[in-house]
Fold this sequence. Notes:
By secondary structure, the protein is an alpha+beta fold. The protein has 2 domains: 4-61, no CATH class; 74-234, Muramoyl-pentapeptide Carboxypeptidase, domain 2. Helix content is 35%, strand content 13%. The chain contains 4 helices and 7 strands, in the order αβββαβαβαββ. It has helices at residues 4-46, 109-126, 139-148, 204-219; strands at residues 74-76, 83-84, 105-107, 129-134, 169-175, 222-225, 228-234. The strands form 2 sheets. Strands 2-4-5-7-6 form a 5-stranded mixed beta sheet, covered by helices on one side. The protein has a two-stranded antiparallel ribbon with strand order 1-3. The longest helix is centred in the N-terminal third of the chain and has 43 residues, at 4-46. It is globular and about 115 Å long. The chain starts with a helix and ends in a 15-residue tail after the last strand.
Amino acid sequence: MNSxxxxxxxxxxxxxxxxxxxxxxxxxxxxxxxKQENIKDETIHNLPPSEINTPDASKKDxxxxxNDTPSDLNEITEADGIVLDIKYAGKDNFTKRKIYDCARCFxxxxxxxxxxxxxxxxxxKHGYSLKVFDCFRPKSYQQRLWDAVPDPDYVTxxxxxxxxxxxxxxxxxxxxxxxxxxxxxxxxxxFGEEAHQDYQGHNTQVIQNRILLKSVxxxxxxxxxxxxxxxxxxxxxxxxxDSWAWSCD
Length: 249
């Protein structure tokens, strides 16, 4: 009977050593797992919103900012029935320089809805459509415009900010069913009194065309400025100046 005690004691000690060893070996694995989870959490928090919980978000996308359109800007295309002739995407403008990298038109959602409603009304009542010369203008493009013509009589200083840079202003005219511009008395971006809203020296047809544009724009919430027949701002809501710029892919 006495001879079995050492063997039993030895077996118990062996099992204790095995349990201790297993417990010690498990600690590093737990620490690595926690460290990996912390890294993953930091990665998610550092990603832009467009990258979070998307199928293609992966390690190689970490820190990469996609040029997706913000939710508070809508793109207007010719599929909306509106003709686009974005002047600052080429040299056919008063600066004679290309200001925008490419021609796209964005406005705030409220302004977009109003503009489409205006276009539909013109089409239904007259067979006309809108032609847009300029829409949202990123702050960087406003700076380019100022660098080209640093004169506050013609360009809003970037520090002050244009309504275009808030996504609430649009420069436009009306075209007939053949796509021809209605006669508004001057070209777009003509800086003289003939472009003023209250100028009375034009013929009856020009005055009627301007009245049509002004009346339909005001009906849907846009307000003119005195010196430019083509410029209208949507003032039912305010947004801050915006630096986002669209891609040209």
